[in-house]
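Entry for the shared binder. Reason: the reviewer on the internal report wants the predicted structure included alongside the sequence.
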Amino acid sequence: MAGADWLPMLLLLGVASAGVAVVYAIGGVLRVVREPLTDAMPFSGGLSPQEHPFSRFHVRWYPVTMIFLAFDMEMLFMYPWTLVVGEVGVTAVVEMFLFLGILLAAVGYAWREGALRWT
């Protein structure tokens, strides 16, 4: 009687395998053959590209990215804060000003270190 215990699992495995095979068969039948573009020009800027699309970014973009992420996290923190500031009171206001002070100190440090200079 031990084989009867495995029958539902084997049936489910068979149904799942058949489903995967059917999906692959339908994908093979409905496959679209695409031709490569030969005379395609850039449509966004209108100018021919000056560098390869997978070229690396210049290192000066990374500090700008970090500053953007800092301000992004600030907004992520400030939106829920606006909902609870009325209930929490002065503690929430002090907490927000401490957070903004730390963020301002970080931006001041980035400015002093030249993260915002492009030359």
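Summary line for the report: The chain has a mean pLDDT of 82.
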